[in-house]
Amino acid sequence: MNQHRRRLNGWLFGDLKNADKAFIQKLESINRDFSALRRDGQYKEALEKNLEFHFAIYERSGKQFAVGILENVWLASGPVISLLYPKFSTRKSGVKHHQDVISGLKAGDADRVRQALVEDIQTGYEKIRSLMKADPDFWRE
User: Fold this and answer.
1) pLDDT tens digit string along 111-125?
2) What is the per-residue DSSP string for 82-102?
3) For residues 116 and 45, what is the distance between their CA atoms, to the nearest angstrom?
4) What is the SS3 assignment for 74?
5) pTM score, two decimals?
6) CB 96: neighbour CB atoms within 10 A?
7) How far apart are the C-alpha atoms of 97 and 119, rounded to whole Å?
8) Which tens digit of pLDDT belongs to each residue from 49-65?
9) Which has the closest alpha carbon to 5: 62, 58, 61?
10) Domains along the sequence of the chain with CATH
11) Are 120 and 97 in contact (CB under 8 A)?
12) Burial of 64 (0-12, 13-18, 19+ CB in 10 A)
């Protein structure tokens, strides 16, 4: 599932013509909130901001059929992603990847945007995998 999620994320925003200044400012605002909520230990709200960031991009792509697929993927993976908090909340990789998306949009660099989205998904997957390897029963706590 992770491989498909990475591919869809990378593919969805290959067309940068939808990324106007207002949209970029919206992403910047969401990412600032995401960072502050993580810092303040408001993990449920931080996860909601992460979802908001990604779905703003998905919906802006105009590829509604893919948005529906990703909604189902997020529903399936959301409970597992929530287990990353607070253990990984001090790491800034999610915030950094989002900032890389924003920087790529500002530069008009579709490859950079795709790479940042893919790396964001991959980093989360690797964190989950490391938790599972270290303690296969971690989600039962």
Assistant:
1) 888 889 888 888 877
2) GGGTTTTTT--HHHHHHHHHH
3) 22
4) helix
5) 0.81
6) 16
7) 7
8) 998 999 998 888 888 88
9) 58
10) 2-140 (1.20.120.530)
11) yes
12) exposed
